[in-house]
Specification:
Chain lengths: ~290, ~425
Amino acid sequence: MNNVLSNKKIIALYITPALFLILALIYVPILQTGYYGLMKWNGIGEMSFIGLKNYTVLMKDPLFWKSALHSFLLALFSALSLSGYLFISIILAGKIKGADLLRKIYLIPMLLASVAIAQLWMKIYHPSNGMLNTVLMAIGIEDPPAWLADANLALYAIIIPIIWQYAGFYILIYYAALKNIPESLVEAARIDGASSWQIALKIKIPLVMNVIKVTIVLAVVGSLKYFDLIYVMTGGGPNGASEVMASYMYQKAFKGFDFGYASAIGFFLLVICLVVTYIIRRLTAANKDIY
Amino acid sequence: MLKKAHSFLLIAVLLAAAVLTACSGSTDMASGENGSKKTIKFMHLWPAGSSKQQNQIVTDIIEQYEAEHDDVKIEVEVLENEQYKNKIKVLSSSNELPDVGFTWAAGYMTPFVKGNLFAELDDVLNDGLKDSFVSGTTEAYALEGKTYGLPLELNIAPIYYNKEIFEKYNLDIPQTYREFENAVKTLADNGVAPIALGNKDRWTGSLWYMYLADRIGGAEVLNKAIDRSGSFEDPALVSAAEEVQNLVKMNAFNKGYNGLSNDEGKAEFLNGNAAMYLMGTWELPNFTTNEEIPQEFRENVGFFKFPTVEGGKGNIDSWVGGPGVGLFVAENSKVKDESKEFVKFFVEKWGEQSVEKAGVIPATKVDTGKVDLPDLYIDVLNELNKASSLTLFADVQMSAAVAETHLNLIQSLFGNEVKPADYAKQHEEALKAEEGN
């Protein structure tokens, strides 16, 4: 076996199928998207080359920038929520009773399909007979907001289930990382008189810092290209109040019949994600780069 | 050892390759001639789950056709409405449309026709089919004098109302808009949602706007704005937008309507929480034959025509509506002649069965004397015969990009986020931009 793996030609032979798949399914479509972005194309008829016009229009498209703002808001809230997940994980990883059960409970939303989650929360948010408003009316609030219909609230009303949806995933990652910290380090600190708070802050968090950096990138990039719940719950509405970049791209392609422009949005979204990833890496790169 | 590992891996790689090529290869024989039998690929949008009766009729028609035509096999693919629309777009971008499929009229159909994807169907129409269509229905499927689709459905949009609620508050069927507003006010004052609306889907709100525009400015004003022989900044179109916002101010719609889908809005009417519901006649089965809805409720539903506005130019017999889905034949189909024959057969059989078996009003004429139907249907069919004009749904008339602008503006208008004058202006700009292309 070792012999096989040390022969470079054979390695090359065996990675060829995977390489071919990745090229065909990821890199070629990316290049194609970039190419379509230079076209005027309704997705059906002939394409015509219009150069960078789609991109110049995109730069000045207020609806796009509004949806980009919403995407970045979502990314910000997702990143902030990570600290909450970390806090929960530290408690879970400490020796508390029922940690195993709680960990499983937190993971349940991860196991649900996005559409099921969306349906569930649409029931909760229903303006007249939803759970949330029933509770609000029961405690005396006469005219509770119609969450998903209110242009000022719709985006935030969707961000909450998105954060809820991914809680289990990040808690699981942090939990595993925290469990990997050698028990002896924590014990040594405790013998030296460190409080639980100090142990968490000065020992545990620095030791899982690498994992935290990865999760920040995951959360931010995942948010920037987020689509599922928004599509099902509001379709980006009312009038674009909860539109994000990916849903705007979908609207343009499949509702507005403008595949050229939608491709430009898609390609630009990729560029944004790359730039943001690079910035996060630079900002969080301490002594050694982790990637 | 080495050899074993080697051959194991090699087999795995070969297997993977074989699976991949099999995937790509299987699509080749999807349509066209398959041995002695010809295969027609047919895609429709009535899954057995959500459109049971339609699905049954389609299945029956196909069986009947296959029984009569030994040499033809019809391969069916069924997708639900939205998925269907998406898949058609994806297929058409790679020029792989099914031989026969469903399309919508006017604006939806135009890019397909311009992309040379749909076959002309005038030869089918002139083959004796033309006279059986209700006039005005095939025209919505025509572009530059040629017909590219044969409509199956015809829908108009009345206002359904809950008789029990109307009786409880002593309300009569409103004939004029003033009476209508009084009814709305009485209902709202008594804590009943006057009108059920799910405006997340946006075209639902568009119906209200279209009727107001029709009753205020007459049947042509909106059509003219869209076909550019008029302007969207016509005073009638602006004041129709003002009336919409008046209704919003009067709390005429159920709470949170802008965030609810049409189905959720409809639920308010079906639950008896809301008194009125403006919707196409495709809802008639729910108010007559659908066993899943309590009989007590079904017996309580009536309909009325959108009231006339005092001083407006509209006629009470003018309807918003139009043909629903229609059939197309793909231009590059390998079995075009057979497909056309199948389409003709389908339209004829559909016209005979659809209203009685599925409650769908076909675009072909129905002899009300021959069919056994609930009263509500007979009334609607009779109204249809009296109709003075039929205005096609605005978002169907417009091109896709303008329709998108229109629908978003409708949602803002109902959400009080745009002033009526700006609403008209933004429509005008979108229509103008389109014209320049």
